[in-house]
Amino acid sequence: MKIPINVPFVGKEEISAVVSILKEGTLTSAANEGGKNVREFEKLASSFVKSKYAIAVNSGTAALQAALYALDIKKGDEVLIPSFTFVATANAVMSTGAKPVFVDILKDNYTMDPKDMKNKISKKTKAIMPVHLYGNVAFLDKILEISKKYNIRIIEDSAQSLGSTFKGKHTGTFSDLGCYSMYPAKVMTAGEGGFIVTNNKKLHDKLLMIRNHGMLHGYDTRTFGLNLRLPEISAAIATMQMKKLPKFLKIRKKNANLLSQLISDLKIKIPIERKNESVNWYLYTISTSKRNKILNKLNSKGIGAASYYTTPVHKTPFYKQKISLPVTDWASSHVLSLPIHPRVTSKNIEFIAKTLGDILNE
Ligand SMILES: Cc1ncc(COP(=O)(O)O)c(C=O)c1O
């Protein structure tokens, strides 16, 4: 694909950081507070999202699992999640023994529908995990209002929304716990990696143990945990990437704005930022009834358009559930994401817009 949907953007800074760690030889640390590079990264991450604490782990999935373990979610509990998400959201819930209960989304921005969420609350509901899909901020005002009324904890799946804000506040910091991914396709990467943010010291201290087999000093397991540690090399890459993140996000926004300007007259639904919302433009997602035709044609022209997600989680073979989620079904057959990552040039954007226009006018 000439213009891929998302690619990691690493440079000489990341390369020299990795080389110096290999030369120095400390590749990881099983200490409670983590290695030097892990701690340096955590400082940058918490200051970027304006949270008291950040805890680095080895994937976004691990971040979600650790957050669920920290809230003692277990067998017999229910966790409300959207079905229109990457399957990791549901898999993390399954790993605790709890049951994921699927909630529909809103057409506005493909995130959890607070009304449907409220209808699905039961006596067993112990947590709600809204997903800031594509970088779009979920309708947290309403979700938080409902969760407070029913005394249910919230974990934000911010895997796709690092840098997105609402009223100046970062996604992941509206609730008890926010979880991020640093998979290579994301707005910044560690190769593999993730992190959790919280303002709660108790949760922070517990998460440090959960990351490290539940140990505090070593061989003294006090709570359930696993090896969720981020290697030092990955932490060093993440540190460099975090420093570059504001620049990456600026280019994404510029590309998104240019693309919107060029395709606003076409007969498709283009993404819009709500008032007071700033999207990180992880994925620029349009919707159209001619999705499959457009997707194939764009791909044949070298444009790495992609569809997230053609199968909602509740329709995958493992989760198979006969439930009705009409907007989720609509979205899975209509959405299409276009490349706008920092390596995409203005010329590329013009080419994408022109090609899309030509296909729609055929
Ligand atoms: C919404 C969502 N949740 C969770 C994850 C899991 O992150 P990771 O792939 O780093 O485990 C991802 C990304 O892959 C994601 O997009």
Order of helices and strands: HHEHEHEHEHEEEEEHHEEHHEH
Measured between the Cα atoms of the first and last residue, the distance is 23 Å
Mean pLDDT: 98
List the strand order in the largest sheet. Answer: 1-9-8-5-4-2-3
Number of structural units classed as domains = 2
Are any ligands bound, and if so which?
pyridoxal-5'-phosphate
What level of helicity do the residues show? Answer: 25-40%
Q: Strand count, sense and closure of the main sheet? A: 7 strands, mixed
The total of beta strands comes to 12
Shape verdict: globular
Query: Could you tell me the radius of gyration in angstroms?
Result: 20 Å
Q: Give me the secondary-structure category.
A: alpha/beta
Architecture per CATH nomenclature, i.e. the level-2 architecture of the largest domain: 3-Layer(aba) Sandwich
CATH C-level category of the largest domain? Alpha Beta
Unreliable residue runs: none
CATH 4th-level superfamily of the largest domain: Type I PLP-dependent aspartate aminotransferase-like (Major domain)
Strand content: 5-15%
Give the count of helical stretches. 11
> Could you name the CATH topology of the largest domain?
Aspartate Aminotransferase, domain 2
